[in-house]
Amino acid sequence: MKNGNLHSAKENKEDEFYTELTEIEKELVNYKEHFKNKTILCNCDDPRASNFFKYFALNFNYFGLKKLISVCYKNQDFDLFSQNDCEKAVYVEYTGSKSDHIPTNDELELKELKGDGDFRSAECIELLKQADIVVTNPPFSLFREYVAQLMKYEKKFIIIGSQNAITYKEIFPLIADNKMWLGYKTGDMAFRVPDYYEPRATRFWIDENGQKWRSLGNICWYTNLDITKRHEDLILYETYTPEKYPKYDNYDAIEVSKVSEIPNDYLGWMGVPITFLDKYNPDQFEIKGLSRYLDDYSGMTPEFIKVYFEQGNTGSIKAGHPDLSYYTKDGKAIVPYRRILIKRKK
User: Fold this and answer.
1) Helix or strand run (H / E) with residue 306
2) Do the bridges between strand 39-42 and strand 204-206 make them parallel or antiparallel, or are there none, so unpaired?
3) What is the CA radius of gyration of the chain?
4) Rounded CA separation 176/333 (Å)
5) Who wins on pLDDT, 80 or 326?
6) Element (H, E) at 193
7) Is 90 exceeded by the pLDDT of residue 143?
């Protein structure tokens, strides 16, 4: 294979991040009530190596699972990469044992797929239809397609993704409509990465065994299973004043720069950071929309910004929602980072 093609193949696999067992355990222990007598699908996971498969095998009887299905994707360029990749697309249908343990390779009844094991293939969709709950770390680059498929087949799920996905036009409406939400863990998470992964200046290291690692600071779990955290009220301490909370020039809402500063006595619309979703209780707040932002437009006049949008330079997340919230201070338009528009219910 030519060097250019090899480089392209590697670039397409830059979102291969292998989740640690401790991270899986810390999140999934909160969902025990949802797992009893359920079929769990891990459809981006080699059953011989995946920590998702290991976790559910170790806790099969503890959770009272019905079945565990795990699917290994066949890497088309297997000969070019490392042992992290599957040479053949296989899957396992595991129904537990008398004592919870991690099955050895000899114990696993591997079944070969005709195709490559892509979650979008007809074979894998048939496995998806069997599942009650999907739990995995899907490819970040295919997150939109992955979630769309879960929604199409009306599946419950617990999956890992980037917090950036919150702002995707395909994802945010699902969050606003309470069809998916954030799980327990958000923030920094460390992942094992394949041998071919190129070193980076930050958040990258190689351990004493030669394993490459990458940490990301904007990771979260997404789910549509009801959890206790989702019904905990956010305690509000601040009091509204016009001086502290300026109103946007182009929308009837106030700017709240920190989630901790949401006023307890304001009942109108507020623009808050996207980190609010980690504290979002749908019984306490409603969500109306998501504003967009421009990197270098702080200081521009409101008239300039108005013309900028009239020229069609950006699109709406939803019809009727503002593309950009800004307010004027000392004669200049201040454009904050992306804001979620919320209002209190109580």
Assistant:
1) helix 302-310
2) unpaired
3) 23
4) 28
5) 326
6) strand 181-193
7) yes
CA dihedral 190, 16, 177, 260 (to 10 degrees): 20
Alpha-carbon distances of 223 from 74, 150, 156, 332, 334, rounded to whole Å: 27, 11, 7, 41, 34
DSSP code of 44? Answer: T
Rounded to the nearest 10°, the torsion over CA 26, 31, 35, 36 is 110
pTM of the model: 0.84
Are the C-beta atoms of residues 327 and 247 closer than 8 Å to each other?
yes
DSSP state of 211: -
Token representation of residue 12: 């397409």
Encoded amino acid at 142, one letter: L
Name residue, tokens 């976790």: 55
CA 141/CA 16 separation, integer angstroms = 10
Q: Which of 10-14, 16-20, 169-173, 222-226 has the highest mean pLDDT?
A: 222-226
Q: How far apart are CA 49 and CA 218, in angstroms?
A: 25
Query: What tokens does 116 get?
Result: 């490559």
Q: What is the mean pLDDT of residues 215-229?
A: 94
Write phi, then psi, for 12 (nearest 5 degrees): -70, -15
* Tally of CB atoms within 10 A around 16: 24
Least confident of 107-116, 187-196, 266-275, 295-304: 295-304
Structural contact between residues 332 and 342, judged by C-beta atoms closer than 8 angstroms: no
Neighbouring residues of 106: CB distance < 8 A, sequence distance ≥ 6: none
Beta bridge partners of 263: 238
Position 321 scores a pLDDT of 40
Tokens of 152: 């199409």
Residue 125's H or E segment, with its range, is: helix 122-130
Tokens of 118: 């892509």
pLDDT at res. 86: 56
Q: Are 83 and 73 in contact (CB under 8 A)?
A: no
Strand-pair category, 111-112 with 67-72: unpaired
Query: Using the 8-state DSSP alphabet, how is residue 249 labeled?
Result: S
- Judged by phi (left if over 0) then psi (alpha if -120 to 50, else beta), residue 177 lies in alpha
